[in-house]
Design goal:
5 helices; about 250 residues; mainly alpha
């Protein structure tokens, strides 16, 4: 992870990170001590400047013009410091900067490609020397190989279950395959019977509900018929009374 204004030293190596920039170099022990002292002086100067003008908040500058001006100033200062470091300390320094617009700015005290190759080789050596990383990589490779073997075995078994690639099977393999198919067939049949029983139970429950509904509807129909019969009998009796009264009236006349 790249951090701003962070420097650290390794034996015969000096690394300086600033933003998205990396400066590397090889230094002797005397030059190493000189760089340490210069770094302390530079740090004290920065602290004094921050006390004088106020601490700068490290965040992205929103104003585009101010951001570009700050980038140009700090880029020039960084290039100057890289040059001074290479001359004063006899260090191999490589500096790479990409601007926000993608423009490349670089400085190298010698051949840039050779310094980058040296850095890549150093990073590989550090990685390979770490036993935990190496053990983890080997463990991942072993797990990947085991998974590949398991996948091959499963694919071969699937082909055999489908009836393919059985010409190379022995009698024992074919007998085992037959037993596995029988067990699978029994499981399928048991599951099918269970589902059929569930469907039959559901249909019986529906039949019971329909019979109850039918009985209830028949009861309602019977009540309606009784009401209709009672109404018809009342109307017939009233009509008979009317006819009797009419016949009596005609006789009296």
């Amino acid at each position: 992870m790249v951090r701003e204004n962070v420097g650290f030293f390794l034996p015969n190596q000096f690394f300086w990170f600033c933003g998205a920039v990396v400066i590397t170099g090889s230094v002797s022990s005397t030059i190493f001590e000189t760089c340490i002292s210069e770094q302390a002086v530079f740090r004290d100067s920065l602290l004094y400047l921050e006390m004088v003008r106020g601490k700068i908040e490290m965040k992205r500058i929103e104003n585009g013009t101010s951001r570009q001006v700050t980038f140009s100033k700090r880029r020039n200062g960084l290039l100057k410091k890289a040059y001074e470091l290479s001359v004063l300390c006899d260090a191999q320094v490589a500096l790479i900067i990409f601007s926000p617009t993608g423009r490349l700015h670089e400085f190298s005290s010698s051949n840039m490609h050779k310094i980058i190759e040296r850095y890549c080789e150093h990073a590989k050596e550090v990685q390979t020397k770490n036993p935990e990383v190496e053990h983890y990589i080997q463990q991942l490779k072993q797990e990947a190989a085991n998974m590949a073997k398991k996948m091959e075995i499963l694919e071969a078994s699937q082909r055999k279950f489908l009836g393919h690639s059985v010409a190379s099977c022995s009698v024992e393999e074919l007998r085992e395959l037959d037993n596995q198919l029988e067990r699978s067939l029994r499981n399928v049949r048991a599951r099918k019977e269970y589902l059929f029983r569930e469907q039959i139970e559901q249909l019986k429950e529906k039949e019971r509900l329909l019979l109850e509904e039918n009985t209830r509807l028949l009861g309602k129909c019977g009540e309606n018929e009784k009401k209709e019969v009672a109404t018809c009998s009342q109307s017939s009796q009233s009509s008979e009374l009317v006819e009797t009264e009419l016949s009596l009236a005609s006789l009296l006349k």
